[in-house]
Design a protein that fits this description.
This protein has 153 residues and is mainly alpha-helical. It is 63% helix and 8% strand. A two-stranded antiparallel sheet has the order 1-2. The chain is globular, with a radius of gyration of 20 Å.
């Protein structure tokens, strides 16, 4: 990148590479890249690695990374939630419960609900777990029924 395009790699370039490597389950390569970074790592680099660990169930590395992220940003709910998910996927429900209790003790809540989007006739609709009065429910139900019927074939 530096020699071909004359662009000095920034921390976000490294975060993207760590994300790609960890999603491909190349954790050793991710760690080598992280150790070779010429700048201070930020939460995005660590978060990319945590995402790969969560995706592939790498409990040992995921736990280390999540705890490090929690030390860096103790009020960020995402790191606790990711760690709980890693533990739950591994069947370590006591550990997941311990992290949820830690969140309660620290009064850390997931404030922003997850959301999904669906395109209906070229119009994108967004909806969340909290619901939305603007959502065209009849159209959504029709689309979901149509998809369900197609998948049964």
């Amino acid at each position: 990148m530096k020699h071909v395009y004359l662009i000095e790699p920034q921390v976000y370039h490294y975060a993207c590479m760590v994300d790609i490597l960890s999603r491909a389950r190349l954790f050793n390569e991710s760690e080598i890249l992280i150790r070779s970074m010429p700048m201070k790592l930020d939460v995005y680099v660590w978060g990319a690695l945590l995402g790969g660990c969560q995706m592939h169930g790498n409990v040992e590395l995921g736990e280390k990374v999540a705890l490090h992220l929690i030390d860096l940003e103790p009020h960020n709910h995402a790191f606790y939630v990711n760690l709980c998910d890693i533990y739950a996927k591994a069947g370590r429900f006591d550990a997941a419960k311990r992290i949820r209790n830690l969140m309660k003790e620290r009064r850390i809540e997931k404030k922003i609900p997850g959301c999904s989007m669906i395109e209906i006739d070229g119009d994108v609709q967004e909806f969340s777990a909290g619901g939305s009065s603007e959502l065209p429910m009849k159209e959504l139900v029709l689309v979901l029924n149509r998809l369900s019927n197609e998948m049964k074939i």
